[in-house]
Amino acid sequence: MPTYDLEKLFQERIDQEIKIEPKDWMPDAYRKTNLRQISQHAHSEIVGMLPEGNWISRAPSLKRKAILLAKVQDEAGHGLYLYSAAETLGQSREQMINDLHSGKAKYSSIFNYPTLTWADIGAIGWLVDGAAIMNQVMLTRTSYGPYARAMVRICKEESFHQRQGFETLLVLSKGTPAQRAMCQDAINRWWWPALMMFGPRDSESSNSDLSMKWKIKRKSNDELRQQFVDMIAEQVKLLGMQLPDPALKWNAARNHYDFGDINWEEFWQVVKGNGPCNKERLEARKKAWEEGQWVREAAAAYAAKNKTRNKAA
Amino acid sequence: MRNSIIDYTLYLADSALILGQRNGDWCGHGPILEQDIAITNITLDLIGQARSFYQYAASLIGGDSTEDSLAYLRGEREFKNCLLAERPNGDWGQTILRQFLFSNFQRELYTVLTQHTDQTLAAIAEKSLKEVNYHCRWSSEWVVRLGDGTDESHLKMKTALENLWPYTGELFKGADYEIAVGMDPSSLHTPWFNQVEKVLQEATLPISSTEHIFMHTGGKQGVHSEQLGFLLTELQYMQRAYPGSNW
Lengths: 313, 247
Ligand SMILES: [Fe+2]
Ligand SMILES: [Fe+2]
What we know:
The structure holds two protein chains of two kinds. Chain A has helices at residues 3-15, 28-47, 49-53, 62-87, 93-102, 119-139, 145-173, 177-196, 208-213, 221-239, 264-274, 278-291, 293-312; strands at 249-251, 256-258. Chain A is mainly α. The longest helix of chain A has 29 residues, at 145-173. The mean pLDDT of chain A is 95. Chain B is mainly α. Chain B has a single domain (2-241), classed as Ferritin, core subunit, four-helix bundle (Ferritin, Up-down Bundle). The relative contact order of chain B is 0.15. The chains are: A mainly alpha, B mainly alpha. The interface between A and B is large, with 46 and 50 residues. The structure holds fe (ii) ion (2 copies). The site of one fe (ii) ion has 5 residues of chain A, from α4 and α7.
């Protein structure tokens, strides 16, 4: 059967909303795009543990400490599901991790911003997990089966994270003047980076057309971003706080909020590695990996010994 | 008796909290993603146990006392945790071994505590025992894996054992409040030692070389290592910096 038939059959399956499974034929570019996207997503979950993990030791109450530990642990679980999903495309977890450490693979730029106060933990849950959900809800319907199924599990936990983040800020918003100031300051610092999470404007996004055709993505960056702004602009009222955008305004004609210009220069600088914490984040991951080398080797050596012993017995 | 129950409850709470605080530093930095998740599970269990004990102590103390005032607003001389719990994480091997020695002790202690006449303590012990059984299993498996893994891992575990063993004696030396509430820990030593020795043997780690060494004490009486002050500074930072706030 000539190749163009395979491609045609593949596209027909996509159009009929039939999921693509690991053993199915798929165009090389489809495999590569999924692998890039899923592994990048997995790395984001793992690197994302660092800014929040930064506050585990200083969480202001035992209850908050437990909630934060459980949240960061959930993110580790998301990383696991996603690495497993990516492995179905033929790359090992170890190879993916090496690519992260060498800088070949990317992760979400949002985690290159620092968590400076306790309120940042609330702001991350509310805004960062909130933005991630927009994307992830869409991805529960993505065309690659293992990715879609991983997303279904992850989405449930992410919406829980978002509610917890909002609730953290709600307590601050009803607290002392210092707590309210902390809350507003965190929103000021996280709002624009959260908007950048949706990626470049549609007019400048290089991978979008094919991703839409293959139903890897189903909504454009700008559509998702607008949906997020509309949601948060309402929720911030419940906190009695402001979003740091004087241009933010309901537009009845569009039935959406208008909002101001994103600082794309900052966006590209952080992508290029010049964000406030790019170096620290990658170094922390590499350090954990390198210091864990002897542990992984010992576990492998012990497993091998056991195998030999069992054979001998 | 009432004061002794409070002190005893705080000893149990503090030991769980301080070890939980130590373990928490691994979250996001573990050697293997699955084990990062496992140690965080244990940390969550320990924090949960600490909360149950603090809540009970707070109810006995009365007034403004809460789980958070007890965890966040007492100074280092008031903390009664065993010294083993505050030992630094060191490498993954030392953390594993600390958990192993501590969890096996907790298992023996909680088993006896489930029979205590104080029903709240007995109930917390009962509930926690399920968790502790898992902590014992997980840490034992890792002690064996690392002890009997590579030459390098064996050496690291041997060093960890030398570092930590001198802090195990205190666990079995009864403080006044332990004796007063009828929980003299000395009887726990034999079952604890037998179990620990069995696993260490499987791990090819020599226990004989550590038999007659000096044992540190003081934690249960609030005389700690210099490290605890730094740990508490970090733990208590927010409550100290923003007194009287709700979180
Ligand atoms: Fe996540
Ligand atoms: Fe999340």
